[in-house]
Amino acid sequence: MGSFLRSFFRTLSFFGRVFLHVHSQKTPPNLVHQQLGGDVEVKRNAVEFRNVTKSYGDNVVIDNLNLSIPQGNIVVLVGPSGCGKTTTMKMINRLIESTSGEVRVFNQDIQAQNSAELRRRIGYVIQQIGLFPHMTIAENISLVPRLTDGKKGHDLTKIDQLLELVGLDAASYRDRYPAELSGGQQQRVGVARALMANPPIILMDEPFSALDPITREQLQDELIRLNQELHKTIVFVTHDMDEALKIADELIIMQGGQVIQQGTPDHILRHPVNDFVRGFIGEKRLAAKPALTVADVMLLQPVKMSRYKGLAEAVQTMQRKRVTAILVADQDGRYHGIADTADIYKRYSEESKTLADVMRTDAPTLRPETPLWDAITLVQDAPYGHVPVVSGEGKLVGIVTRACLVDVLSKPYLEEAAASGE
Prior knowledge:
single chain, alpha/beta, Rossmann fold, CBS-domain, disordered N terminus
């Protein structure tokens, strides 16, 4: 059950980052307009595809693509194998040349630029990492600036800063060779190399797909953290929908060389445009889209006692109700705190003590109107395994436990299994 619960927390916590951005694909303007509460924020596009086609003979891989990628976001291209997502990404730095149409980077036609110089101004991280085995980590990271500037040496201060930025101790890793590092460590070096020339755009082609699940999730978290600091435009290709939902500020779903839907993960989960998008996302994820509040799932009759009750009576109540903690509230429902078995037994021998003497008043609480998805992490990390629900007037109105979260979050999975006869 513990691993089952962690699986749900990991999957459904992806929905916490909501941006409410709606973007039209039909006419790719130079500016993205976001409407938020009546105020219009104008953001420049980093990349634009204008009527772009890529074909190999009679085989059309990309079909009249119109697409705008906003600056400073993690934009994820996702879709089934052969949908054109990697081809689309590689046309940005001209590793693949378009057959027709126009690709613009910061409003400049890339066909008017030297392809080698263009690539040196765009970071690139690939699945195979591509570190040179005969070079040290410092030499690998500094490769692009050395090629660009023609210098033999490298900026150790900047290399050290980048190693620390990607979570590697500079003194320990700077002079090692790639073979001495794990796959996850090598991929961190690959990210540092992509950042060395301070490019405004970084392309990432399934960079974490070959890593083990734990390392992969750590690097996903690291990527999100890094871009909150650096505000780069990251174009990320993956076939993993869970990965896409977790890291994306903006999601682009492709099929048959065309964009089927573009928007924030939250918008696409709420409003899939057709059966293909619905099927590719998966019914389980769609059924779990944010809608519930704490009030919808909380238990309405938590075990509670007056703060004036003695400790022996509290222990008896806990044994009878089979709970490990007591919520402390007055007769009128006013909440005061919480006491668990450890709190009580520390002072159990002091017969004059009451719950008021041992309860904790700093334990986290929830409001009934709090979105359930905002409460998941709080409940998961709660030391007592549950969190009291307190109204705006300070009244204890319920409790959210890990067990009741499992009931709610597992419902669509269990219903689907029952429907399929599993």
